[in-house]
Amino acid sequence: MLLKEILRMAFGSLGVNKLRSILTMAGITIGVFSVIGVMTTVSALRGSIETGLSFLGTNMFQFGKFPVMQSDGPNRHKYDSRRNITLAQAMRYQRLMEDHSDVICLKVFNQDGPVQAVYQNRKTTPGLNFVGSNEHFLTANQFAIDHGRNLTAEDVELGRPVVLIGQDILKKLFPSESPLGKMIKVNDRAYTVIGILAEKGSMFGQSQDDFALVPITRFLSDFGANKFTVNIATQAPSQTLYNETIDKAITAMRIVRGLKAENDNDFELYSNDSMIAAFAKVADVVAAGSFVISGIALLAAGVGIMNIMLVSVTERTKEIGIRKSIGARKASILIQFLIESVTISLLGGIAGILLGVIAGNGLAMMLKASIVFPWDWAAIGIIVCSGIGVGFGFYPAWKAAALDPIEALRYE
Fold first, then answer.
1. Residue 330 to residue 252: CA distance in whole angstroms
2. How far is it, in rounded angstroms, from Cα 409 to Cα 412?
């Protein structure tokens, strides 16, 4: 028989039982959709990870009490029980490192409930990013001034009640007037606006323009120094001196923390590279989990294909007997049933790929990541679906091809 005729008969057979074919394809679609959807999202996030997680400036690294990604695992108590990094320790570190670094940024973040800014009868929504820092915050965290001025060393030394605000706060509190020189309240403390931060946009769906920045000394004075731990960001003079600066910085931190030679570090060191690596590790775990779940779904779908094809062989036993009696070869019967099996699997796989790409990119857009099409995973999906069609369809196809024409003609 000609291949064209075999294809026509195979597709015709699938068309006779449309609902059954669609339901069988659905199993493949679900399995492929789950893995393609996750991998599309992960690929999109990986594509924007360099800019998304690189919130520290060039050649920057940071010390903190907690690791960059903290979970509620068995090590949580270890980090919670550490001593806070105090402002006195941070300032001593700053003095020890002043000849070995270009920028040292000290900062504390409010984690004591939602923060709201108020001006006259206007209020922002609760949940602002409220930070206490020094004059190096903008450089260390890649912010810029739009209007007004930055914090100065004198502001920090004297603990002045001044504040820099982001574009979100500007739009909510000062929609039609300049905020410079105006007094606002942040968490019921009064501050004079001296500068407006330039718009920075969102990172993974979270606005970076809802910032309120005050001198670190004022922050700790207003809200209690004993409740906060200081993060210290340090900029190496150059990339070539980066590792050397880190070594000197670790030594300086151990000195200010009063650690002996036998003591482990009671602080964390992280940089843009370490944060990217931590994200990549989480993404790999998510991808592996998705792959396992999808593998189970595809295995179940493959069994479904084999079952449907065996039913089809039984229903069409007499048809097979007639075809063999008029000269159809064993190979033609085998190829026809394999084509039916592979077609069901491929159509389900293609539907799963399309739905997965749409869903994955939809989630990526919500997280402000770039849109991608995972060609490698789509190709793998097509190959796997073809393999499932052949692997699970071969036994029913072989069974159909091996039928004795005389016995098949007698079948009722």
1. 80
2. 8
- How many whole angstroms separate alpha carbon 331 and alpha carbon 82? 73
| CA–CA distance, 124 with 116 (Å, rounded to integer) | 6
Angstrom distance (rounded) from CA 97 to CA 112: 31
Alpha helices in 201-271 (DSSP H): 216-223, 242-256
In this structure, are residues 186 and 117 in contact, taking their beta carbons and an 8 Å threshold? Answer: yes
How do 189-197 and 162-165 pair as beta strands? parallel
Task: Kindly report, residue by residue over 310-348, the tens digit of the pLDDT.
Answer: 877 777 777 777 777 777 777 877 887 788 788 888 888
The neighbour count for residue 16, using CB atoms within 10 Å, is 11
User: Quick one: tokens of 5?
Assistant: 């005729």
DSSP structure class, residue 58:
T
Choose among 410, 395, 230: nearest CA to 318. Answer: 410
Q: How many angstroms separate the CA atoms of 390 and 349, rounded? A: 14
Residue with tokens 């069409």: 316
Which amino acid, residue 259? Answer: L
What is the token pair recorded at 110?
Answer: 């409010």
Structure tokens at 117: 């800014």
User: In 3D, which of 303, 309, 380 has the Cα closest to residue 27?
Assistant: 303
Find where tokens 């389900």 sit: 348
CB atoms within 10 A of CB 381: 26
Pairing state of beta strands 129-133 and 211-215? parallel
Segment 282-291 long-range contacts (CB within 8 Å, at least 24 positions apart): 282/69, 283/42, 283/45, 283/46, 286/38, 286/42, 287/38, 287/39, 287/42, 290/34, 290/35, 290/38, 290/39, 291/35
CA separation for the pair 323, 9 (Å, rounded): 12
* pLDDT tens digits along 234-285: 988 888 888 899 999 999 999 999 999 888 888 988 876 666 666 677 777 7
